[in-house]
Each structure stands twice: as structure tokens, then as C-alpha cells.
Amino acid sequence: MKKELLKKCRALGIPLVGFAPVNRWKKVPDELPNVLSPWIPEEFWPQSIYPEAKTVIVIGLPVSLPIIETAPSIYYQELYKTVNSMLDSKAYEIANFLNEKGFSSIYLPRDGYGDIKILIDKPFAFFSHKHAAYLAGLGSFGHNNVLLTPEYGPRVRFTSIFTSAKIKSDPIKIKDICTHCLMCVNNCPAGAIPARGDFPPPVDKRACAIRSAELRDEFRSPCGICIKVCPVGKDRELFGRKNMAIYSKNKKFEKYHRAWEHVRRYGSKG
Question: What parts of the chain have a pLDDT lower than 70?
């Protein structure tokens, strides 16, 4: 079944796939790259949401670095919506594929909230896909409390499928890949990421949500700053972005800044 699912995911153009048994939410694996305190509350476990669940399948799609570099912009907003929509449709198709094989399965939406303003007072969705990806061995947490992957750093979106099928889990072989450079801290417009304390640090979700709500009203949400300045990810080599000085006011990179500013001037109120 796992081979069939991986073949299906390849056919759907899904580059990141991970499998985690639901008991990983209950019994914390010793080999996890980061210590999360507090642990995920029981009401957010997959078996609490769908009692039939035995395995969580996590799929991820990348978000293109050169587009995120224009953020906040209408360009990144459209990319964000497109990737979310594709994740939902692909997860729905995988769940139906499993149902046809005789294993009861359901997909989960990428964003489990009605509007960004909901998160200002209630800063949680009913299930965390980043924690599911973490428990499926797809990455480690960064200082910005976002999951980092070797392939794309934090520039990847995830969603999940709950299935009654018992599928061989993936090993948690990822180590802490955060460089602890604090680029996310120093560039966060909302000041939502603390520089010191526990790792990963508790991000001020309310401040982040308020910033996103303001950008939504300007038609250029989400923020994306901590995502674009993260140095982790092989995608940086692909797009020629290994020199992090590109995000400073450096004359060597003026052509990039002019391009980003051009995009930001149009299509939104920003």
C-alpha cells in the first residue's frame, strides 16, 4: 500500500510525502530533533479528531522563493492561495484513492479557520499540519516556529490525510537544521519572534495574526518575511540565492530590489 501511495503522489506531482502512526502523538518519539514544551494537547491528536485513524499521511508542496521575495504582495498572495487549493484537491484525491481500496480515509483542509481575524482571539486551527510533518520525519523546527525542510527550508505548505490503514511509518532521521542565525527575528515586522528563551521559541501568534489581517485588508497577505529570509533549503542554490546579503540594501543586488518593489506597487493597496 505504501508503494502504491508513493506512486500516486508522484503522479500527482507531490515532492514531499511522510507517514506517521497516530501513536507518535501519544508517545513522544525519543529521536525527535527538537524538544517541544508543552507537547501537543490531546484534543489536537489525529485519533481525537478521527477515532478510526491509524496513520497520518502528510504531503507538502513548495512555494517558489523568487515569488516569496516580493512579499508582502499580491503575487505572493496568489501563490499562497494556489498552493493551498492544490494541497486540498490532492489530499482529497488521495483520501478517495484509499477509500476505493477499502480503507476509510479523510482529507483535512490546509487552513482550518474561516478568516485570519479569527486567529487574533483563537490562534489555533483544529489540527496542526506542521506538527504532523514534524512527526512524519519531514523536517525540524526553525527559530520562527515554522517547520524547516532540507529541500525548501520553510518554503513549503503541508496538509494531511487521516486513514484507517496501517502503513509503515517513516523514520525520524532529520536533525535540527536551523542555523540559529536570527534572520527571522531581526526581520519580523511584527516583532513576534523572541530572540532568546526556549527553542523553538513561543511566537506571538496574536501579533502575527494582526499583521496578517492588516495585510489581508490591503490584498497582500500573508506576510511571509520570516519565510523568505531563512537561509535553509536547497532551493536557494536552484534560484541563486545562497548569498543572504541579497536582502540588505546592497548595491550588488539592486536589480532584485527594484524588481520586488515593482511587484509591490501594483495590484494591492500596499
Answer: none
* pLDDT for 197: 87
C-alpha 134/C-alpha 151 separation (Å) is 14
- The reported pLDDT for the residue numbered 32 is 95
Distance between CA atoms of residues 266 and 94, nearest Å: 38
Q: What is the pLDDT of residue 112?
A: 87
| Biggest CA-to-CA distance, the chain | 60
Query: What is the pLDDT, as a whole number, of residue 115?
Result: 87
Q: Cell triple for residue 224?
A: 511571509
The per-residue pLDDT for 179 is 96
pLDDT for the residue 270? 77
* Helix intervals (H) in 181-224: 183-187, 205-217
Q: Which residues, 6+ apart, have CB-to-CB distance to 163 below 8 Å?
A: 53, 54, 55, 56, 57, 95, 98, 103, 104, 105
pTM summary value? 0.95
Coil, helix or strand at residue 87: helix
Query: What does the alpha-carbon distance between residue 53 and residue 164 come to, in Å, rounded to a whole number?
Result: 5
Residue 234 grid cell:
536547497
The one-letter amino acid code at 251 reads: K
3-state secondary structure of 147: strand
CB atoms within 10 A of CB 226: 25
Contact 106, 162 (CB under 8 A): yes
For residues 151 and 234, the answer to whether their CB atoms sit within 8 Å is yes
How many angstroms separate the CA atoms of 168 and 99, rounded? 18
**CA 162: distance to chain centroid?**
18
Report the pLDDT value the prediction gives residue 249, as an integer from 0 to 100: 86
